[in-house]
Amino acid sequence: MKLSLLFANIFLIISPECGTALFGEKVRTFYNNVAARFECAKLPDDRTCAVLFDEDDCSGWQMNIKEGYTELPKQGFTDFLGGGLIDRAKKNDAEAVLVRDGCIFIGYDHYKDSFTTGLGDAIAIMAIDGNAYKNFAEEKSMKHMDEKISAVDCFCKGFAFSKI
């Protein structure tokens, strides 16, 4: 309840010229989007560096990323069994990431040992002042990596802003 009042007050300050019906719809949409991110995007308490999400609303698979280099698994035959009921983490399928406060996440288009292409395109996300949730499709600088990540690096130590 406090969260909804906070967002309503913010919208009153930001958009006082909005009509009542338009204002109510904008507040509701904004609140639902923010609330969904707070509810679905949670980091486990095991010092996970980041969490990759299959969908930007956190549905589908989730993959906890530890520190260091990680290759996402390739889509296997068992992923097709059950008519799509089996949904496991796989390369070229992630749409969003939640990075732990004090950590840096780097997503690559290709595996480290890809001798023909190298790592390819990459994105880097630094979580300096709190956890950072990024939807790749919504961020202009990350749009090219939406459903393109095959491998990641994640680091939480050795930076001035590191918390671990």
What does this entry show, briefly?
The chain has two helices and eight strands.
Give, in order, the helices and strands: HHEEEEEEEE
Globally, the shape reads globular
Q: DSSP strand (E) fraction? A: 15-25%
User: Are there runs of 5+ residues with pLDDT below 50, and where?
Assistant: 1-18
Strand order of the largest sheet: 2-1-4-7
Specify Rg, calculated over alpha carbons: 18 Å
Structural class: alpha+beta
Number of DSSP strands? 8
Classify the helix fraction into a percent range: 10-25%
Major β-sheet profile? 4 strands, antiparallel
Please tally the helical runs, counting DSSP H or I stretches of 4 or more residues: 2
Taking the alpha carbons of the first and last residues, their distance comes to 33 Å
Please identify the oligomeric state. Answer: single chain
**Mean pLDDT score:** 76
